[in-house]
Amino acid sequence: MRNGKVVGPRAAMTTEVVFSMSMKSCVLLSLLLFSTLSLADGGYLLSAEEWSRPRSGESLRELPALKAAIGDYTRQPRSNIIVRYPGGEEGVIWVQELRSWLIALGVPSRRIVVLAGSGQHDALDLRVAPAQ
To answer: Cα–chain-centroid distance for residue 123?
Structure first.
């Protein structure tokens, strides 16, 4: 009995389902917030998992790492976007595709610097730095 009402198994099950859904929502929100890590020194990580989703110009603009890096780039005149990628053929293909998308999104090719060695086997490291 709860609040003067008889609570049966169905009501208890509903409460468990709602709690379970709330926990799932919290976990998913946490994963979303931390899926793109902001590095302490101003870089952003774009994970292979994020990149594996179907891509369009609009969807790429909404990826947290790209959104942050492009935002930093537009606020810093005469800056470059530096992309560090994992080594190997897969990393080269990945960074070249990202480079093409950045150009399509309006970043001049001369402002994109690609370097091997992201330090991650499953992520690109994006940074914005003044042009040298």
So the answer is: 10
